[in-house]
Amino acid sequence: xxxxxxxxxxxxxxxxxxxxxxxxxxxxxxxxxxxxxxxxxxxxxxxxxxxxxxxxxxxxxxxxxxxxxxxxxxxxxxxxxxxxxxxxxxxxxxxxxxxxxxxxxxxxxxxxxxxxxxxxxxxxxxxxxxxxxxxxxxxxxxxxxxxxxxxxxxxxxxxxxxxxxxxxxxxxxxxxxxxxxxxxxxxxxxxxxxxxxxxxxxxxxxxxxxxxxxxxxxxxxxxxxxxxxxxxxxxxxxxxxxxxxxxxxxxxxxxxxxxxxxxxxxxxxxxxxxxxxxxxxxxxxxxxxxxxxxxxxxxxxxxxxxxxxxxxxxxxxxxxxxxxxxxxxxxxxxxxxxxxxxxxxxxxxxxxxxxxxxxxxxxxxxxxxxxxxxxxxxxxxxxxxxxxxxxxxxxxxxxxxxxxxxxxxxxxxxxxxxxxxxxxxxxxxxxxxxxxxxxxxxxxxxxxxxxxxxxxxxxxxxxxxxxxxxxxxxxxxxxxxxxxxxxxxxxxxxxxxxxxxxxxxxxxxxxxxxxxxxxxxxxxxxxxxxxxxxxxxxxxxxxxxxxxxxxxxxxxxxxxxxxxxxxxxxxxxxxxxxxxxxxxxxxxxxxxxxxxxxxxxxxxxxxxxxxxxxxxxxxxxxxxxxxxxxxxxxxxxxxxxxxxxxxxxxxxxxxxxxxxxxxxxxxxxxxxxxxxxxxxxxxxxxxxxxxxxxxxxxxxxxxxxxxxxxxxxxxxxxxxxxxxxxxxxxxxxxxxxxxxxxxxxxxxxxxxxxxxxxxxxxxxxxxxxxxxxxxxxxxxxxxxxxxxxxxxxxxxxxxxxxxxxxxxxxxxxxxxxxxxxxxxxxxxxxxxxxxxxxxxxxxxxxxxxxxxxxxxxxxxxxxxxxxxxxxxxxxxxxxxxxxxxxxxxxxxxxxxxxxxxxxxxxxxxxxxxxx
Length: 915
Description:
- This protein is mainly beta.
- The chain contains eleven helices and 51 strands.
């Protein structure tokens, strides 16, 4: 829980000033202070409204407390989403709408240079790489954008996002080397030409902040000048920025997410960064060696299948609090407070403008701790679960002269809806919530749900509510001294995920019930709601005065006015209808790897005969350069064929190779398999090195002894898998490194072959160098009519090498249903099976199980997956090690999630094989 390279003491020294210099690069000036010209910090007040491409100029500034947008304080609650990890542009809108509904007001966007650039000077910003479309969609969903174009982004991406071709050109990346800077400048120039059109400062988009990847101070100054010259005038963030911005860190579960992000709040952070808001898929050859598999972050609040996880609730609650309660945009350290039990660590902060006090209490022990905590002059009993944290507040205004005296539950939101003041408080299911309000005039509370109880004593209203599982409890408070009625809501984590505040030009709205609220429009006396339902559920709406009618996804909803002054649906909203997925049958199978045969024509392959390499890996003495990158093969599998002369008496072949995670090597001599080898261990920088030592089988040596020409023209064929590049050593060699022999000292003439030309639609990371990939076996439209018909699971003969399986299937999902579908791939008959999965020609990733019973589920993004009665082509390239029968285990479709609602999905271009 560290701030961005700035000590708290140094940061506090900036109090009351506007931060200038490189961090903001001139885009911030005194003109961004309040129009009154008042000196000193900007006071706490209403935040700016939701952003959009509104055509008006906006001033963006920063003081010691927070961002200032048009002179108003903004607490940034930003979640990271990588558009490249969702290769279906229609679904970008779905995820952005979900992020906004779950409380985020900004999206952190990293761009992967390698996905856009297949070769020096060649760039593609179309299709799944359409940055302009993503930024337009962010503006349409009213989300700020924090843009991070790299060039280096990390993010468990191959080489940290640096393109593969950069390994084979002059210049050291992430330095001030002029050769590297020419390429980096070219990349940023292309990005900036798009980003400049979407800046919030100009009113043409919602790009609010721009992150820099700069090598040192000199590089920072140079990059700053380049970016400003390119028309980027929003604030710039970098490693040395004087900005209290929370470093993103991955959290495992809901409790850890609370500890981390409440800890950031305790340090005064108002530029919050949730490491992974949406998990996504590292499809193709995108993942770096540090990535465990195609699933990027299974613990993200919105997972790979676009479903909320357990972490969604605490992040939703905190995001809504920062968005709707401005008190937390200006906090200063207050007098120290200690709990009676020292196992609880307390941080006390206060807002000098509003008098709100925040108490952030953390429990690092393994068990729940109940203790008293002095808050607002009262010792309050609180309970904090083990390895968890809670936020309590005192002095918080809830409207109509009412303030929180103290509470043992966390505020989630406080807003005015029409003539109502609505406040929500959250805790864990099974807890007894206790809220005490300062009420200067005797209130008239009404229990709207049976669980609540209340008592009024000496100017304080005590309300107690047992928090039930997924249950919302309502209490109404009136007073003869105020025309405004207060509605108090109490919810556990599950119920909080059905509370949806929304800001419209005509006022705020609060909706309770559905699984998701996407959009709200006020049309005369009608409120039009758009969203998702999963199960049959109720609908309750608090809306501005004058709203009498409700529609849900275009259909009218009969309602009545409840005692909570809400519009309450008479009948439940329908859930998602049952969906039935087809069985996968009609499989066809074909073996490949003709490259292993001695008579295979490799005359079109590149000669691997270079004497020097651009790699940081030394070339083994006496060997030619065999590293794949030096010959232009950067992703996927790589084949080598070595013609041996003078190999009479050969007994042993030793092959040294270097890969990323889960690398493997297969070797054949004169078409006979020598064996399969897998890497183990790690050099510590994402590179695995290994030497495969193969002793020629007795029958092969005997056959060679009987041949008079044995050794005169032998062919050694080698397949190396997983040439992924480390994030922190992108030039480390990949592929075969050297060969050594025992029993003979042959001369070897090597040739190498990898991936064919990059796919013009799917990009350079979609396919590798397998024979089937080079000849389009993974593409729709390939004629597999002469392949062998098989059923799964399938057991083939014991064989080392590659076997392909193909089939087609159709789905018929109703147009008003969003179905998230997965492909479950089991292992084959034995250990060591690797399966590369292609859907409509798109590489969905690799399944690399270590034994039977370890299936993997590949999420199939709608758009690439045709869900509306169209044909889908599924192809799997299966690598078998030869130690057991080759084949493929179970492969089936699985419904991961379904919702009535969703967004319109356009098919993603998936060109087939040209006939």
